[in-house]
Amino acid sequence: MSKLNLVIIVIILFIYLNYVDINKYRTYNQNQEFFKVVDAMENIDLTIDNIPPELQPYIYGINIPKFKKDPEMILDQFVKRNKYLQQRHEDLFIFDILDFTGAYFPSAHTDIEWNKVKNDGFQVWTLINNDDYVGNMFIFFNQYLYDKYYGTGIFLRMYKNKVAVLKNCLQINLLKYIAVEHILELIPIDEFIRTTKKYYLDFKSGDTIMFAKNVIHMSDYRNLNSTRTAFNFRVAFKEENCESGNGDGKKELNISDSDCGYLNDKRLFKLKHLF
């Protein structure tokens, strides 16, 4: 093996092993101007015992004292408390389970995985441990954006001194510079601040939320060296007559041909958990 090939292999291996941290710093650098806008907004602490009225249709929180990194166990805690989830118990499909240390995605977004799975569903996020106040997650409430982009994954970034709404797609998100054709709309900064509320998850260990797929959220960018640990996953409701179904009445996932996200069909079904 030549020295050049060895160097290439080492570089590839380094990127593979450190992808989360590399992506964190890349995302942080891309969003410097947006962070200035966020800093100008009022910070409102959110706890599982004090979810504001405007967020109650979108977020539900509980504390799980004897927490385990087991998505079925966590989801079961919500099923026990929610009649609708009890009715849809057999339809729940857990996928895309993430377990990383640190505030690893400091970008305001809705989850990219819903580009692939078109069913209705929600996310679940649990704080395992954080010895500091900062480092958890922000949630942004903007009724206009929630309603308009319910079925579209989005992320927010600055473009020519305005807040740009872009489709959350890897091919777009990875780019440092924004191409005009990727912009869904531009919102003046003062309008964005006026119509958006910023909440910070002031959580303790075991605090867990389930939240709607259109809720805009962002890892806390204020301490890139945060050692907080969190556990999260997505849950879809299987439906009859999905595009991926075979017409026999069996409930299925509606899997799109989107290549926007991290999931492909093979990985999705490899990681699936039928509840």
Mind summarizing the main beta sheet?
6 strands, antiparallel
Strand order of the largest sheet: 2-10-4-12-3-13
Helix content: 25-40%
Order of helices and strands: HHHEEHHEEEHEEHEHEEEEHE
Which residues form runs of ≥5 with pLDDT under 50?
A: 14-19, 270-275
Number of domains: 1
Estimated structural class: alpha+beta
Global Rg? 19 Å
Report, as a whole number of angstroms, the end-to-end distance: 48 Å
Based on CA inertia axes, which overall geometry fits?
globular
**Strand proportion:** 25-35%
Total beta strand runs: 13
Mean pLDDT: 85
Number of helices: 9
Describe this structure in words.
This protein is α+β, with helices and mostly antiparallel strands and 275 residues long. The chain has one domain. It has nine helices and 13 strands. The chain has helices spanning 3-17, 19-30, 32-39, 71-79, 83-87, 143-148, 170-173, 189-195, 265-270; strands at residues 43-46, 59-63, 92-101, 121-129, 137-141, 154-159, 162-167, 183-188, 197-201, 207-212, 216-219, 229-237, 273-274. A six-stranded antiparallel sheet has the order 2-10-4-12-3-13, with helices on one face. It has a four-stranded mixed sheet with strand order 1-9-5-11. Strand 6 and strand 7 (162-167) form a beta hairpin. The longest helix is centred in the N-terminal third of the chain and has 15 residues, at 3-17. The radius of gyration is 19 Å and the shape is globular. The model is unreliable at 14-19 and 270-275 (pLDDT under 50).
